[in-house]
Design brief:
The chain is α+β, with helices and mostly antiparallel strands. It has a single domain, classed as Jelly Rolls. The strands form three sheets. The chain has an eight-stranded antiparallel β-sheet with strand order 1-2-12-9-14-7-4-3, covered by helices on one side. The structure holds N-(carboxycarbonyl)-S-(naphthalen-2-ylmethyl)-L-cysteine and fe (iii) ion (FE). The site of N-(carboxycarbonyl)-S-(naphthalen-2-ylmethyl)-L-cysteine has 16 residues, from strand 7, strand 9, strand 12, strand 13 and strand 14. InterPro entries: Alkb, AlkB-like, AlkB-like_sf, Oxoglu/Fe-dep_dioxygenase_dom. GO terms for molecular function: broad specificity oxidative DNA demethylase activity; ferrous iron binding; oxidative RNA demethylase activity. Keywords: Dioxygenase, Iron, Metal-binding, Oxidoreductase. It comes from Actinospica acidithermotolerans.
């Protein structure tokens, strides 16, 4: 389902077994070497979303290999099986196996939303590559707000993201504003997928950074 040029929603792309596998993996990554935590913002605040990163460590305006604003540890490698999963999503979204061949994501950002967490409207501009972002959602449903490239304000389109949904953001929408204004607590198949509460979102990206 194409929401906007380059933005493709694949509802229910992950089966329950794949979702369980991802939840187990996220639980392991959340233990460390850089524990799942709330990112500190340059303004002095903290994000309500909790995150853990693979491949590169993200903080606002900056990618590094180590958690230089936290415990200094190096983030784990992005596993090949996760990059493969991203390529399969891309091939399905664009209905073109070739679209995925050269796609080499080098970072995964895992976001955990408890019942009160939100993500304000923002652009993802730390990546120097225009390659698509692949997003995977597990757990409670949320409202995903997909805006425009000019301003953080209207016009936008609200889409519900549910457990198992995949989304690809490429082409003209790669640098569009977007956010998660609302979660529906208790709305997902959380017990089935091994998640006590809340929502997990994984995004795969290409940083375009060397080595
Ligand atoms: C559209 N995550 O991690 S995923 C983020 O559900 C982020 O956790 C949200 O926004 C979440 O930065 C939304 C969908 C998403 C991710 C990256 C995008 C949409 C995007 C980058 C460009 C355009
Ligand atoms: Fe984002």
């Amino acid at each position: 389902v194409e929401i906007a040029p380059g933005a493709v929603h694949l509802p229910g792309w992950l089966d329950v077994e794949q979702q369980r596998h991802l939840v187990r993996a996220c639980r392991e990554w959340a233990r460390g070497p850089v524990p799942m935590r709330r990112t500190r913002l340059p303004t002095g605040g903290v994000m309500s979303v909790q995150s853990v990163h693979l491949g590169w460590y993200w903080r606002p305006y900056h990618y590094s290999r180590t958690a230089d604003d936290h415990n200094g540890a190096r983030v784990p490698e992005l596993p090949d099986w996760l990059a493969d999963l991203g390529r399969r999503v891309l091939a399905d979204a664009y209905q073109d196996p070739d679209a995925a061949v050269g796609y080499r994501p080098d970072v995964a950002l895992v976001n955990y939303y408890d019942h009160a967490a939100k993500l304000g409207m923002h652009q993802d501009k730390e990546e120097r590559s225009p390659d698509p972002v692949v997003s995977l959602s597990i757990g409670d449903r949320c409202v995903f707000r997909f805006g425009n490239t000019e301003t953080r304000n209207r016009p936008w389109t609200d889409v519900e993201l549910a457990s198992g949904d995949a989304f690809v953001f490429g082409g003209p929408c790669r640098f569009a504003y977007h956010g998660v204004p609302k979660l529906y607590p208790g709305s997902g198949p959380n017990a089935d997928v091994g998640l006590a509460e809340g929502r997990l979102n994984l995004t795969l990206r290409v940083t375009g950074l060397p080595g």
